[in-house]
Records
---
Amino acid sequence: MVRHAILQLKPAKGQIGRNLEHLEAALAKLATEEVDVAVAPEAYPTGYFLQGGVRELALEAAELEDRLSAWHAAHYQKPLDLIVGFYERDGGDYYNTAAYLELGGRGLLHRHRKIFLPTYGVFDEERFLNRGHELKTFTTRFGRAAMLICEDFWHTVTASIAALQGAEIIYVPSASPARGFAGARPANVERWETLARTVSGEHGLYVALASLVGSEAGKMMSGGSLLAGPEGEVIAHAPPFTEAVLLADVDLKRIPPVRYDNPLLADLKAGLPLIFPELRKIVEEL
Amino acid sequence: MKLIRGATNHEVLDLNYPLVAKTLVRFIREELNGRGYEEAVVAVSGGVDSAVTLALAARALGPDKVHALSLPHRDSSPESRSHAELVAARFGVELETVDITPMVEGYAEQTPGITPRRKGNVMARARMIVTFDKSEQYHALPLGTGNKTERLFGYFTWHADDSPPVNPLGDLYKTQVWGLAEHLGVPDEIVHKAPTADLEPGQTDEADLGVRYRRADVILEHYLKGYPDEYIVALGYTPAEVATVKRRVNRTHYKRHLPAVALLSSTAINEFYLRPLDFRTEDG
């Protein structure tokens, strides 16, 4: 069992130090829960909507790692894995990045730079950020993992690639302004749950979604963080809009029997050579 | 064999009003707290928009943290005044009255030939002056009451009704404000009366606009989403109504923006230099 804490947090815009302290305080409250892996939302240290302010507030991955490692060393005996979304500065380039930090261990284990930068409607990411160009799974202390950020996950092909590369769990930091108020919950919250259940059920893996909350100048980040299990079931679900911590165990040993009963991933591997030429043709014609 | 008909499949304006109310209450609380405020000022006209805003503010902050202002002019309809009192009583908020007649008439006396329309605009701007001064007095943030329909039509006095820094109703059409008003328990006589700016005697919004709100809102929703005119007309709206709505929207874009600034550099504010309104840095 791998104990996960999904942190649905509300940052104060631009207040990096204060926000990291808030995250650390949330984790400190879980001191007796023996958390193995904690997941924080997209762009958590700064808030999501920065426009050109990304240039002022982006962090180098090493800065973030150093800060959180120092805090971990002062408070923890055992390692803690932490996934956190942040705006990353790398030389003159800026990315919307998720870091997987094995605190008290190997440090920055992996970083995923968001590939699908929404630049439509209320979103304007590609104006201020570079795209990431890689989608790779990686091995944690517990198993094989992938990270996808927000819109990355809205294209289910990315999760399919991660699953084909062996991911047993996909971590999804996100920031999603609430919109669509005709139903029981905001339409985007419904959509996130549908996506997470579809992906986890199709590939027999876990999906851990950590979604930002708080009003950013009227854009109400919706939350609705969740953990979905390998049969497409929702194991834990946070309410919209309000700060919450989800605490749940991930049992990676469930994956082989679930996949045996429902071998869609194996079928995809078997069928991929048949459909791949079509996919290649589409890409070549772009 | 059983025949099963599919659900209708078109744009709908009807919302889950309890969810909307909950969300707007949270919006008010978070936007005020983020700016260092715990109290709000709401100018209450006796109409449905300010009634809904007051109800939301009272829920968000507590009635004792909300300052309701009645700002009548001697030419205002007595019904507006009594409805403002009714709303304040319904939501348990104390109502403070400031008569704007001396402010408005002090200017009007020096301005021979001032038309009713110009005087109406002076009234709206006098109300803005009082609202912001009360904001300073009580350290309470003014809440705007403008709805999406009037914002899209530019049917408001520029730099008056649109000036408060936080507006919970600005993305709700008038039709939706009515729905929310019913959910929040705004008194029936206010929800169901003909909307009026009450800046000129006998004025009603729908006579001024030349289209009914309930019809305008459906047209607006489709127009904003990019449906062509023929599609909207096929829904049962006249070409004249569609044209009226589009004309009002497209003549008033300037009222929804800051003033045009001559761009001379590559650091022009809001053109090149882009920061969201809540942007802060740690040393800022």
---
Amino acid sequence: MTTKSISLTVNGKTVDQEVEPRTHLADFLRHGIGLTGTHIGCEHGVCGACTVLVDGQAVRSCLMLAVQADGAEVTTVEGLAGNADDLSPIQAAFREFHGLQCGYCTPGFLTSLTQLLMENPDIGEEDLRKELSGNLCRCTGYAGIVRAALAAAQAYKEAAATGMGGSR
Amino acid sequence: MKAAAFDYHRPANRAEALDMVGSLDNAKFLAGGQSLVAMLNMRYAIVDHLIDLNHVTDLAGIEMTGDRLRLGAMTRQRAVKDDAALAARAPIFAAALDYVGHFQTRNRGTVGGSLGHMDPSAELMALATLMDAEVEVQSKAQTRSLSIADYPMAYMTPAIEMDEMITGVTFALPGEGHGWGFHEHAQRHGDFAICGVAALMELAGGTISRTAITVFGIGMAPQRARAAEDMLASQTPGDDLYRAAADALDDLDYTTDAMASAAYRRRLAGVLTRRALADAARRAGGDRR
């Protein structure tokens, strides 16, 4: 099968590569450019572990072909905070409120919550739990995740109010 | 699992897309990919050519004129759910879209992709059936319109030809001030519904002037509950009436599968119909919550 050359931005850096059309974005990120922070769980869109941001929107990277990300701006869990040593507000809240145990599902929760909280920092617990139903965690029972998300919402609200919306 | 190898094509417009699907063997259109790519990964679907419609920009759009709503095939499910004008005119769309997958899949999933995939529990198919939709399809040779009643051909198979492309769908919206109800039962939020019911109701002088009821997730395609609809005509809304409507659902086809028996689906259809009608009557009566 004919390979395709793609050019995209991943966590602010330009990436040019040849890809097989059947390679999905998650495999491309992990094996093509070595960003193993994105995890693959079910590989058919159910578990949410592989969620990344494509042009700011949370998407299942197992349900998008790498070739479809040509020209897109992709943010993975590695790119949520500005620097490697920093944590974004949702990442910091996960640490503070014990939003993870084994950590396998965590990248998907963090990327999903980044879109959710940036778009709707006023979200309440009921809606938050409903929106998080697209991400499965088998360790925490979700209590720590929900506490972390509600705490981080406050930070996103303050960022929006002070015009600091540029930071994830 | 990983998809079997295929060639990838990215048409820039409809003409190119229709040329490709008319000339390539074992080709499939890729819309949002939220079902198809999963099926490719699991090798339920194996194609030689994938034709990506994501760059055919004139396939997306929401147009509302009077009592007609047209959704372009490549309109994202999220765009439908978030459309403020549509939410004001026909809130059942946003309510139903809330059950379509999860927000992450709605970011990419499309209206036409859902209609083409034709999952038995698809909410968009249920709305199309509820609102007597017309599905537009186009091939190199012709453009035609299919009534939703004639659209399902077999399990997950619409009555469209291999060289045809779904370009849009037009819904007949209920009148201003109509009431609506939408309920479904699934094992988890966002999971495939075992049974769902969508209902519309219009009142005139306290009696029911028009009603539509669609039951979905119970068989190959959503089904209109015609007997119940007829029974409700010109009646005064009330719990006894909804119970009677729920009893008038025996003529629908209910399937048994690994998730639920036909008898359980029949029971759910009754319960959810009562709830949907009660909601629809309340909203038609002016309580819009």
